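User: Is it possible to get a 3D structure for a protein together with its bound compound? The compound here is beta-D-fucopyranose. I've pasted both below.
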Amino acid sequence: MNFKRSDFPSDFVFGAATAAYQIEGHAHGGAGPTHWDTFAATPGNVINAEDGAMACDHYHRYPQDLDLLQDAGMDAYRFSTSWARVLPEGRGTVNQEGLDYYDRLVDGMLERGLKPFQTLYHWEMPSALADLGGWANRDVAQWFGDFTEIITDRIGDRVHAIATINEPWCVAFLSHFLGHHAPGMRDLRATARAMHHVNLAHGEAMLRLRAKNMQNCGVVLNFDYPAPLDDTPEALSGVDLQDAIFNRWFIEAMTKGTYPERVLEGFGAHMPANWQDDMATIQQPLDWLGVNYYTRNLMKHDPNAPWPGLSAQPGDLATTQMGWEIYPDGLHHFLTRLARDYVGQTPLYVTENGMAWAETGENGALSHPERVAYASDHIQATHRAIADGANVKGFFYWSLLDNYEWAFGYEKRFGIIHVDFDTLERTPKASYHALKAALAQ
Ligand code: FCB
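Assistant: Yes, that's possible. Here is the predicted structure of the complex:
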């Protein structure tokens, strides 16, 4: 790594991130079915129709995983609490086993000096609520608010920070318009509704958390750097529209109470009635903002195609195992831009950044330079953003473990720790050792 811990302010937090459905093993401990289980069981959606039933078995092996975080010299662990594990039907009867598990998990972090950074929703909508329309149903805001209260009553006294929702763009657009994630819809009307309701659910959860005097409440948004495919007006228009849908829709609503015009035009009459009346609920003060960043895309807009008429493709930079271009300057761009245009000096955390790579050799542990360089260059970009005035307070690598990479099943490996999915054995990779060495300096 071309950085050391002492390059950063003394209160800067280094950690690694995971999400419940991707690692826990959803079959354990009385969790209810989610829309990811059925999406995965439907042929053609997920590579090999794999699901999160066993995943990394973190549910049973979390002590070992927390030990590995501690041994690396990490300060914090970003994890999520599964809605369907706590409320198998999404509402109503509480699964005490699920609450007990999160209780043990948080205590395990505290025993090891790790700050718990909780995410309330990282994509596992309970099936019973998906049956009612899930994110397309306005009631989701109240259902999510109720879940927020139940889990907070149990672990809220010990978590260091709480994020409401992970990556609303993926929850709404990727899942209801592009159809790549559960529930796998491709419907403009459902998309318009989900895009609004996910913001409303964020606002409602913030209100419920405030009512319980919770501190350090925020949200995790993802940002993708749109660059023009060429120097035509169509390419510039594509950049602006992609930026509006992906990068501005959520942060603008949450911090300014408005939506970008070009997106509203596209959604037209499909926006929920009287959506304007919800903007005050959505615009809640944030204690911190989580930024997930991975890549850039080259954009083009076809004005004659049905809205949005966008095409995106990688350029000629080096790519990861996902085919995503590696572009660390994009992270610097968003950190400084978010500070300048939206959140001022509100603390920013890089809550996800990392690469999929197929390290080969014995247990994948051979020393391959690509992941080390990726992390190093993005941590450097974060450092430059701080120097340029962004109040960045932490960096979380995605991910601690190789895990269930959604529609890609277990094929794409993001971990600094290799997981053998037959034996579930963990083996730290070269990037784990490099991060540990940098954090010790
Ligand atoms: C993000 C997700 C995370 C993981 C990474 C690679 O979009 O939040 O769960 O899948 O991408």
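The chain has one domain: 5-439. The chain has 15 helices and eleven strands.
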